[in-house]
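Handout, section 4.2: multi-component inputs.
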Amino acid sequence: MAVHITYQQQQSCFKLLILIRYEQSEYDFKICEMNPGERILKLRETIEHHNDLYYVKSQPEIQDVEYDNLMKELISLEKQHPEYDDPNSPSQRVGNDTNNDFVQVRHDYPMLSLDNTYSPAEIADFEDRIRKIIPGEPIEYICELKYDGVSISLHYEHGRFIRAVTRGDGEKGDDVTANVRTIRSIPLNLKGKNIPAVFDIRGEIFLPRQGFEKMNKEREEAGEMLFANPRNAASGTLKIKNSSVVAKRPLDCYLYFIPGVEKDFTTHYESIMAASDWGFKVPPYIQKCSGLKEVFNFIELWYQDRSKLPFDIDGIVIKVNSYRQQQLLGFTAKSPRWAIAYKFKAQEAVTELLSIDYQVGRTGAVTPVANLRPVLLAGTTVKRASLHNADQIALLDIRIGDLVTIEKGGEIIPKITGVKLESRTPNLVPVGFINFCPECHTPLVRPEGEARHFCPNDTGCPPQIKGKLEHFVSRKAMDIGCAEVTIEQLYNAGLLKDVTGFYELTLEKLLQLERFAQKSADNLIKSIVASKQVPFERVLYAIGIRYVGETVAKKLASHFGGMDQLMQATQEQLVQVGEIGEVIAGSIVSYFSNPRNRELIEKLRDAGVQMSGSVASGKISDKLAGKNLVISGVFKNHSREELQAMIEAHGGKNQGSVNSNTHFVVAGEGMGPAKREKALKLGIPVISEDDFTGMIQ
Ligand code: IVH
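Output:
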């Protein structure tokens, strides 16, 4: 562990004098000399070793801070020595902002699916079919969990991770290498013996339930669409074009199949154990079974215990263990004859619908929630279930007093899947969706194409206002230290009618309130003052335009540079911005067409909140890293200052005049003829404002 580093230049080569903490001892120190290349390799090896302990074996040996220090040292050395760049360095696991294109890649071995069954009788049929082809031999099975995620094929050459490809149509899939590289439990450099020179390994990428819940909570706070279940979240995440976003999501991966290694191993089990030695995360929940009785026991065990796992499974996979027997059995057109998937039925319970509540969220969306007679389902007591929207209520023709079936499938929140019509008593009446907001009594609206009803009273409906205030102060928005109870108190005292109210608060006003002491009042005011320095993209996120989450806000800030430009943008201009679709664009246009929102923006501007250019203070990408740009002339969409800020935000440098180090000249109207001539003479590309924004999108 490096505690002190100095550099000495010897001729053209750097040598590092590193004071390292010697092996395990806390206090022994040893001085050693290593050149940067050696040190970089050593650091990579050490960090990957700790990754393996933490993410694969769940047995960390060092503290987070020690790990962070190793990583910092590696990143700093790699920056100084780009000659040692390696895409498989652990420092690359943070991803990057470059737009990934998912090119199609053909699988070396097709990715087949498995035959599914829901009944034990069909597993007996599966064994009968095997016995017909291989009569009189004992058959050993391997039972594994059926992970409910996204299947992936990883390609390795000479111990190094090369490529990750999704299943696609089974023949070809999407190259998602950049995203998969961010998954810490996937080894980038293998260790151990007898690793095939070139091979594929197959597995399932999934999101553990806890990570999924956290992610959805953040999305809810940001007013973004929620993922229905961890599987959708994992597959959505793998398709994100920006791998630095993927790196922040806690994806994990279990490996369960190596195609084409029948010559290297005699059984499937052996191949999986070898994969574990090479550094892959292989499931601990795997069992050899000498007959169907043991297979059924395994199924029963995990049917009961599946809710105790930290991730979702949807069944059990049963595989013939011997490779020789597997080869005798072969494949049908679709699937191997040596394996079958037993799928669990979704866990169900029946209970009574007691009443329906309607909840109003920050965006005004009204969600019907069923109150149920408490019932035990998959290890937890369920009292409430989402009814989604009016269509769902109508579809089920659900009535208060009905006996309903609830199901916990992949989803975290149980859903009502049916009504026991045979038990319905004749006096029950159909449920009509409410017409007025349960909180402020405003008539509800249902916009065209929306399944949900909304309360349009966004400036007067208490849960909407409080939700907006909470969102505004949240860490990723304005980061004002104001707890939910304090917001409630300030709102009830009439001091916060909307988010601009924060900037009208004074010490005197706060000290008149109960529970406010000098110190807490001081802290709140300081925090509000500090929020005026929060960069523009976070302000944009904080004002809570529907569908404008953190990532979209960053995109908009970098493209438009300031609030004024964004406010004037048309639907057509908005959809030009990468990843902004019609729905988001429509929501932005509608937000700014409301005079009350424009007034709110003006009040925030008057209070000193950042309304432009601030993208420069937060780095957005490295797309212009190492590039020198000259700006000349007057531009359609951005001021020169904004363009300069954008260049810096994307890692480039602004130059005052054209010279041989210039990479691009961004030309607006009225660009000086001398500059243009010089650029032409030096062969420097002269690009338009649109070319430039295209470059950084
Ligand atoms: S083995 C040749 N093992 O289930 C068959 N698959 O329809 C290789 N899955 O596409 C697959 N857990 O995505 C295998 N323990 C496991 C699995 C598993 C989940 C998925 C996989 C496959 C699908 C089968």
